[in-house]
Amino acid sequence: MSQKLPKCYQCGGAFTRRIAPPHHRKLRYEGTAYDVLVTDMPEWHCAACDLSVTDEEGDEPLQAALRKHIGLLTPQQIKAGIKELGITQEKFAERIRCAPESISRWLNGAVLQSRVYDCLMRIYFEFPQVRNALDEFSPGVTFGQTVAHARDADVTGCPAA
Ligand SMILES: [Zn+2]
Fold this sequence. Notes:
Layout: E1 15-19, E2 23-29, E3 32-38, E4 42-46, E5 52-53, H1 59-70, H2 75-85, H3 89-95, H4 100-107, H5 115-126, H6 128-136, H7 141-154
Antiparallel strand pairs: 1-4, 2-3, 4-5
Helix pairs in contact: 3-4
The chain binds zinc ion.
Residues 8, 10-11, 13, 46, 48-49, 51 line the site of zinc ion.
């Protein structure tokens, strides 16, 4: 079962799948555009006219490149941190006053956590006193979820125009 390769819309040649050569892109995070080195993004390439086209499969590598550039915790680090605490994702969300859906999106790489949540997770993972302080305080879940949703709406990581 062979999939038919799409045709280049510039010259009619055949597109092939490849990893784009390393290049810089302007990517936005929390209102700032960063010049990010992208090294492992899949793209369609036409050898005949050298046209390159990306699709949605490039989104995750772009997010990963931006995450690395800014220095945010990776999904693997967050996952490991939660595992070490021995609590569920839902419990962790509750403890740091965040919507469970936000944690899921951070873990699957679809959305970058805000800097504030990145800092909060780091100190929550690192310091038992911080955990005690937050765990003892009974959270206003509704308020926490509202804040998390407002933040996620702002953090798209979309390439700048
Ligand atoms: Zn072409």
